[in-house]
Amino acid sequence: MPPRPEPPPGLYDLDHDALAALLEGEPGYRVSQLWQGLYAQARRPDEMTNLPKALRARLAEAARPGLGPLGEVLADDGETIKALWGIEGGGRIESVLMHYPRRSTVCVSTQAGCAMACGFCATGQAGFDRHLRSGEIVEQVLWAVGRTKERDRRLGNVVFMGMGEPLANYDRVWAAVERLHTDVGISARHLTLSTVGIVPGINRLAAEALPVNLAVSLHAANDALRDELVPINRRYPLDALVAACRAYLTAKGRRLSFEWALIDGVNDRDSDAAELAAIARPLRAHVNLIPLNPTPGYPTRGTPPGRVARFRDRLEALGANATVRRNRGTDIAAACGQLAAACTSVDAAAGPVEPAGAAAPIALRARPR
Questions:
Q1: Residues 154, 299: one domain?
Q2: Which of 231, 364, 358, 363 is nearest to 294 (CA)?
Q3: How far apart are CA 143 and CA 37, in angstroms?
Q4: Catalytic residue among 107, 118, 121, 336
Q5: Pairwise CA distance, residues 326 & 80, whole Å
Q6: Is 336 an active-site residue?
Q7: Mutual orientation of helices 305-317 and 270-283 as an angle, nearest 10°?
Q8: pLDDT digits 0-9 by tens, 41-81
Q9: 79 counts as catalytic
Q10: Relative orientation angle of helices 134-149 and 170-179, to the nearest 10 degrees
Q11: What is the pTM of this model?
């Protein structure tokens, strides 16, 4: 199936001038009211009681819809929430909100599906649908802001690590970054962009004004294995990727992260640790070790806990900084590599949502926004 065409801009894609044009005929201060309501207060137009009812109805009619909330599911830990969204033109995406003792983090999607074809990732197994608009990315964060406020807390971090490859949708992703930084008020130092290694995108990031964090999904530290696990490596091999990371580090001075999904018997050997340390150490990169989460289309299991600890200890002995990331939301298919919009909604009004991938569907409880 060919990728879906991208729909025209929605309400959250509009800049201040475009919003003013939409409100032509209204008092000038209405633009600021609406802008502040959308971004500083994370409210939808129909929730802004300081706007006249007629204007709210006009906005609902004139502004194209963005994301359509289909439901949410809470993990057994009580701290991880996955949201399922319908996107204009068809297709679905997922976002994950994770509460920690001192912070909350949201993981947002940048594409519906993914064209990078990493075989161990559920999103990659599903294939590419379409790029998300910048407003659709921002809306996911605003949802998380609202859910975090319900706990009398502030959203601390945004990670672009959900469905899709952020740097393959660079212009829209960067527009979302600027909107989140300038209008939602999230510091660039609390925004992290993840990539499987799109070298031109990393080079563009190095030239941007905002010092966002960069996380590279590495998973293998030699070209032969990485060609197999992360096919984009055939276009941008490790030498080119490491050079781009070094340039980013020089330009930004921000800590670089390498993501490493530990796959049993594949990339968890002492030789893999030595190759990884040889790349990470000169870059002063932090290595996030993630035991591979199960997905329907990849039969190999993740590395057992004891060998995960041994791999971490080996990296540290070789002078690399490494931690093991705690898996969150595995029971609701919300953990790293599991997002595939394979869920069903129990919203009686909306009806059932058919699963988009091969994973078993998960019942979602619809919530008002």
A1: yes
A2: 358
A3: 13
A4: 336
A5: 12
A6: yes
A7: 50
A8: 999 888 999 999 999 988 887 777 678 889 999 988 889 99
A9: no
A10: 40
A11: 0.89
